[in-house]
Please model this.
Amino acid sequence: MLKLAMQKIKRARIFEMIALGAILSSAATTQAQDVQLKDWRLGVTGSATLNMHSGEFSSYDGFIECGSFSTANTLGWMAGNAIWFPVMSNVAISGRLQYYKANGNFTSPNSVQPYVEMPDGSLVRMESDYNLNTALDYVNLDVLAQWYFTPKFFVGLGPTIGLNTRAAYEQNEVIMSPNVLEFSSGGKERTILAQQFSANGGSVLLRAGLQLMVGYDIPVADRLIVTPELGYTYSFLNVVSNTTWKVNTARAGVTISYVLSAPEVIREPAPEMRLVPQTAQVAASVIPVVNMDVESTLPSGEVLAGADVVLMETRCNEVVPLLPFVFFETSNATIPSRYFTKNSEFTSDADMQDSAIGVYHHLLNIVGYRMQQFPDATISIVGHREVADGDADSALPVQRALAVKQQLMTEWNIADSRIRILGRGLPAVVSNRKITDGQMENRRAEISASDPRILAMVKRADVKREVEPASVKITPRITNSSAVAQLQCTVLDAKGTSLYSSSVATDGAATWNPSATALATTLAHSTSQRGIISLTATTNGQEKLIAEQSIPLRKRTRSMGFADRVVNDSIVEQFRLIFCDFDSPAMSPFNQPMIDMIRSRMRTTSVVGITGLTDRIGGADYNLDLSSRRAEALSDVVKERIVPAKVITKGIGATLIHDNDLPEGRFYNRTVLIEITTPVDAE
Model:
């Protein structure tokens, strides 16, 4: 009986709720009975979003392996204005201009796991994760066709276009294990990099997609409608060029709109017909008509109609090992003048554009700068002498080490306590003492550091820019030119910045020689823009007549490999090992960080070229065989983890790439060059 009574009570409550809903619906309908589909609306809209990031990409800045990221689901929001107008009895078109926060938070394990020494002396691998926090801001324009299946319920479908206003990221590394390990700066987390995506050579693209939405109009007051909405946007374009990274969006929000009356169409009365006096007709006939012809002259001398201005950027990216030796003259402890001092306008080792030997000659500047950056690091300097070449004074080794120390202390203010000096006879690895070249290499001071970052490899980046066409000729075509008092030719970029301006005679021509520097600034945040060539004629009566022609301004980026080989649509990365031992194909232990980096940059689609070299010491046939063995030895090592699409090895013997007359030149010739070419769509 109790159960039956409860069922009756539940039924009664259900009937009460249905009745209450009918009353509220009737009231709402009564309040908004004037609102019909023929009326226009204006309103505001806001949504909470689920930003669904997918695709393969990396924060790769040229050489450092920063992890590959694929998926992330991160909350965001969008807000803006909306307009709504009818086109049929059950179809309306709505437009929305909204600000969209499409941020993403990604996590990727670090594939490089170096060994670290524990307090008990044991070696364990350090495991860490990369956290990448991206900031993506867009201004979206949505256009939806809304089909009303009932007077209030609709389904909308249409395109969305977004203009990117911000594309930046911050990447952190977090130590996962061992638990006792911390970074040298303190703590288990460090910031690796924070910058714009455009700083990595990638261009941020427009957001274009297709949006599906459902909604329900709820009248809440006279001419006021609240519309809860659910939507999903599928993106067609990648976020950053050279990636497959896309952001799809699911959202839930509300639009509040105010209903306007349908605008009346005001018809203008037909203009009266009247006769123009003959004098006015004559006056109109003398007004000049301004036009122009545009021609481009290519570097080859070929002349083409129109102008398609392209900035060609050729990038040379190379990782250069730092030879930690300072060489001295016979019986001398003075640092040779070829080693640059701080007064040589050295700022930092970031993106040095000098040659590999030029980078090496900044050795003491690089060491001093890095010791300032890492104040806990210490170094040891060991001086050596070569008795067979006249270094008879037993005090020379210590004097040579002291000379290096004093330069670091004087020019870089490095504390005495951070530099330890020693003097010994011959180096641990001795060059051939029977010949002059070998003896020169043994007269040196060797630097070692407690922190591997002090002597870490240097990234050498060089960008060469040129513009095609070499010149653009603008020839005015003006009728009744005698009525023109002044004629000005101007070339503007998309933001209205002047790229060229010159006065020109009505029967002459203006020649614009595009500047690579100016175009690089114009195209810094976009790979494709449009410019305008404008001719402004000022008549004798001070009336201004303007003719304009739009021209494309584009940028193309190419990579340059060793031996000036230019490669399109691929990323070319260059590495060289930290020198092979004298007369040996064996890889020096110093090469391990470089080998780890090479492995991390290879893909299964990459083509890897490995070239072995030697110095000039030894016979030609022997050196050719030794260089081939060096290339093969490295090939076996790099293929242990990932087998690329193709590996090409060769030895070129004592081919001159650096000055063999200098001991450092012979060390840099005693090396292996590695070139990794990866298609852009595989990055």
About this structure: The CA atoms of residues 348 and 369 lie 7 Å apart. The chain has a mean pLDDT of 81. The domain at 322-456 is CATH 3.30.1330.60 (60s Ribosomal Protein L30; Chain: A;).
